[in-house]
Amino acid sequence: MKILGIETSCDETACAVVENGREILSTCIASQVDEHRLYGGVVPEIASRLHSESIVGVCEEALEKSACKLDEIDAVAVTYAPGLIGALLVGVNFAKGLALAANKPLIPVHHIKGHAAANYLAFPKLVPPYLCLAVSGGHSQIMVVRSYTDFHVLGRTIDDAAGEAFDKVARALGFPYPGGVFIDQAASRGDKSKYALPYPKTQNEFDFSFSGLKTAVINLIHNAEQRGESLDKDSLAASFQHTVCDILCTKLVNAIKLTGRGKVALTGGVAANSGLREMLTARAAELGAEVFIPPLWLCGDNAAMIAAQGYYEYMAKNTAATDLNAYASLPL
Ligand code: KG4
Ligand code: ZN
After folding, report:
1. Which of 111, 157, 166 for a ligand 1 pocket mutation test, highest count of atoms within 8 Å of Cβ?
2. Using the 8-state DSSP alphabet, how is residue 201 labeled?
3. How far apart are CA 68 and CA 47, in angstroms?
């Protein structure tokens, strides 16, 4: 079964064709990052307008690269939540029009479930149940993926997402948006034990809180600037990255112990972080747990993951009518 996936929840206009939830026939992304970089972050109205401009071309390109004609596609899957509402509406309405015109089923996909499905494209042997840590610019959560469509959230961030904290600290360090990757690069040159940073506490042991940690780093930078003291940027990046990774991995390891799950998957834009990939691999190995980490090109937002999850949603009969709406936030 061939599914055309559409993703417009943030600042990537993406379309892809995936067969049976596992095989990518094409995946195309038009990134808006250069436009948003001018403003230091995503500007929602600009995102919606750029999606409107790009979506037809990206969809045509995805079909062309997959060597499929529209009538050879079996269904259209689209991210309908969560995300920037104006951005989501562009994708949802485009998908509706396409599904209606081509007389194909319409499949709504939750963005976080889509991120989890990125691992199915890389690892044919990964099947639920397993534990999944999704860390992106908008989300940080530990989930038990009970089946392809049934997710149980063990913990989530109570304030900033991990990627948001990376981006804000990066901005304070003078890196361009989105700064996660620049922190990653700087961290590789720094000493992670040079700056002692706080480990925020949360009531639920599987929840995250990154706001206090982010503020502590930003205050440290501002204080150094005001006093005219020099700052070892690379070591501060390394200390911050290590602290975030330690928080994420410690909670995930506790979740592995609690649930007895022997399989753990990482996903989302922050899954591209080299420190996190390394630490999770090492800590899961100590427990004998199997780790699944997507290749870098499947970590960030893409439509192949939406088409992959769309396949499993279709199998579970989760299709939508033409009154499908988009939602800025929606529980799993
Ligand atoms: O999944 P994604 O593309 O979009 C959302 O759904 O939010 O994630 C984007 C986030 C950004 O915050 C970006 O800085 C972060 O992923 N990111 C990284 C790295 N590469 C991307 N964070 C840390 N280290 C990286 N190498
Ligand atoms: Zn995402």
Report:
1. 166
2. -
3. 28
Query: Is this prediction's pTM over 0.85?
Result: yes
Which atom of ligand 1 is nearest to 299's Cα? 1
For ligand 1, is residue 267 a contact (CB within 6 Å)? no
DSSP state of 208: B
Domains and CATH numbers, the chain: 2-116+299-315 (3.30.420.40), 128-296 (3.30.420.40)
The residue whose CA has the least distance to atom 1 of ligand 1 is 269
Which stretch of DSSP H or E encloses residue 164?
Answer: helix 162-172
CA of 77 from ligand 1 middle (Å) equals 23
3-state secondary structure of 219: helix
How many beta carbons lie within 10 A of that of residue 117, not counting itself?
30
Give backbone dihedrals phi and psi of 19, rounded to 5 degrees, phi first: -100, 130
Give me the DSSP letters along 224-276.
Answer: HHHHT----HHHHHHHHHHHHHHHHHHHHHHHHHHH---EEEEESGGGG-HHH
pLDDT tens string, the chain, 332 residues long: the values are 999 999 999 999 999 999 999 999 999 999 999 999 999 999 999 999 999 999 999 999 999 999 999 999 999 999 999 999 999 999 999 999 999 999 999 999 999 999 999 999 999 999 999 999 999 999 999 999 999 999 999 999 999 999 999 999 999 999 999 999 999 999 999 999 999 999 999 999 999 999 999 999 999 999 999 999 999 999 999 999 999 999 999 999 999 999 887 999 999 999 999 999 999 999 999 999 999 999 999 999 999 999 999 999 999 999 999 999 999 999 99
| 158 contacts 209 by C-beta, under 8 angstroms | yes
